[in-house]
Amino acid sequence: KAGVTQTPRYLIKTRGQQVTLSCSPISGHRSVSWYQQTPGQGLQFLFEYFSETQRNKGNFPGRFSGRQFSNSRSEMNVSTLELGDSALYLCASSLGQGHYNEQFFGPGTRLTVL
Amino acid sequence: GESVGLHLPTLSVQEGDNSIINCAYSNSASDYFIWYKQESGKGPQFIIDIRSNMDKRQGQRVTVLLNKTVKHLSLQIAATQPGDSAVYFCADQGDSNYQLIWGAGTKLIIKP
Fold first, then answer.
1. Chain A contact for B93, CB < 8 A?
2. Are strands B32-38 and B56-58 parallel, antiparallel or unpaired?
3. For A23-73, how does the pLDDT look when each residue is reduced to its tens digit (9 = 90+)?
4. Distance (Å, rounded) from C-alpha B88 to C-alpha B51?
């Protein structure tokens, strides 16, 4: 069974640009969550999607948005990039929504903002 | 505010010894805790979880202990192996059923 895949793995952008990251969950998983991980920090929750609807959102500005498609694949968009957005962005999928369902993480997309 | 913290950023242990990684949480209402392992270049991987109605849970070579009185959580790894080298995170349910509060992580280094 294929794991969670994320594309691209690495990305370099400049301030003010926008970026779209993609996540393909494990087959059959309907929930996708996104996290931001910065050096020395734990994971910061961005949002969770289930059945194409955003179910929960963390404390991030509106520049961070996402969506989920009917095949459960998800995209995350960051507009007007800032230097502080440089981070590893992780996607996790699970069968159901909520953290009582085991989450399976992808390898992440490393975003560098110059 | 709510937080989940780890006592040591780095833990160095001899191969074959037992490792103990500690975690403190602040929300006394939390009833669910998870330990994750993140190897270099990979996403976190679930290790073991525990609910607040338990004080101990065992897995394969790992044991999680929960002390609700002092709001402390620990992960014990028996007979530490080179493959255990990773950053270990504890995560706490917090006030939400959908959002976990993550600690900053402890890097486990195995000495040969």
1. yes
2. unpaired
3. 999 999 999 999 999 976 779 999 999 999 998 899 999 999 999 999 999
4. 19
Per-residue pLDDT reduced to its tens digit, B81-98: 999 999 999 998 776 667
Closest residue to B43, CB basis, from A41, A90, A99: A90
Given a cut of 60, whether residue B6 has pLDDT beyond it is: no
Query: How near does any CA of chain B get to the CA of A52, in Å?
Result: 16
DSSP letter for A83, please.
Answer: G
How many angstroms separate the CA atoms of B10 and B109, rounded?
Answer: 7
Answer whether B6's CB lies under 8 Å from B23's CB: yes
Q: Tell me: the pLDDT tens digits for A76-91?
A: 999 999 999 999 999 9
- Averaged pLDDT for residues B43-69: 95
Residues B33-46: b if buried by 16+ CB within 10 A, e if exposed: bbbbbbeeeebbee
Contacts of A40 in chain B (CB under 8 A): 9, 104-105
A42 lies within 8 A of chain B by CB: yes
C-beta atoms of A42 and B91 within 8 A: yes
Among A74, A65, A64, A67, CA closest to A94: A74
